[in-house]
């Protein structure tokens, strides 16, 4: 066990450097690319809830100002970065026996926060407040994983078990998973109905 941990630790710098090299040209400025790399390293190192203050301290910044500028204002090609990072993950994890976990993208509910109503908190995103920019095309939560799982199949992920909660338990999401050839375990709402398999129907049906 100790030897395995040591080997993994020794391989990590090279592995992480290879990951960050994939989208290097997606950042128009070198400073932006380095800030992104430093922030990711800090996110992996900081335990518990992370914010610009804690991440900045882990990086060695005097405050949160650099990250507060980087996150909303710095320019980079987000779509290409996602594609290349996904390709890197597939290269390292393989294309079979993959378990995609569809987690909640954003919050289902939330409380409005502001600097006057919550200690140390500026106005934060909350599902109860909306706040989607006009230039961003709307997609429902079930639609987002459908698109991502379809892309995973196109990128060569042959066999996978998808796990998700009831937010994604609707018919459209389940149909997409079947179409791409994956199996799934998904929670459904308590009032959902469907055929029940009897003792003679014990065969697996994805």
UniProtKB/TrEMBL annotation:
Annotated protein name in UniProt: SRSO17 transposase
Sequence ranges assigned to domain Transposase IS701-like DDE in this UniProt record: 25-130, 131-198
PANTHER family: TRANSPOSASE
Organism (species): Streptosporangium album
InterPro entries linked to this entry: IS701-like, IS701-like_DDE_dom
Positions in coiled-coil regions: none
Pfam family, one: DDE_5
């Amino acid at each position: 066990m100790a030897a395995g941990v040591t080997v993994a630790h020794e391989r990590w710098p090279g592995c992480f450097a290879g990951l960050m090299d994939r989208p290097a040209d997606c950042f128009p400025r070198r400073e932006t690319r380095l800030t992104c790399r430093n922030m990711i390293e800090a996110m992996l190192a900081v335990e518990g809830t992370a914010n610009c203050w804690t991440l900045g301290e882990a990086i060695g910044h005097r405050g949160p100002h650099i990250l507060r500028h980087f996150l909303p204002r710095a320019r980079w090609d987000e779509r290409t970065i996602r594609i290349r990072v996904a390709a890197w993950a597939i290269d390292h994890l393989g294309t079979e026996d993959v378990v995609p976990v569809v987690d909640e993208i954003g919050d289902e509910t939330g409380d409005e926060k502001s600097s006057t109503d919550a200690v140390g908190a500026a106005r934060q995103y909350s599902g109860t407040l909306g706040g989607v920019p006009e230039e961003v095309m709307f997609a429902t939560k079930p639609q987002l994983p459908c698109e991502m799982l379809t892309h995973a199949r196109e990128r060569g992920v042959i066999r996978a078990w998808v796990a998700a909660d009831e937010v994604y338990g609707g018919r459209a999401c389940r149909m997409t998973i079947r179409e791409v050839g994956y199996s799934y375990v998904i929670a459904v709402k308590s009032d959902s109905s469907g055929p029940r398999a009897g003792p003679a129907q014990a065969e697996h049906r994805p």
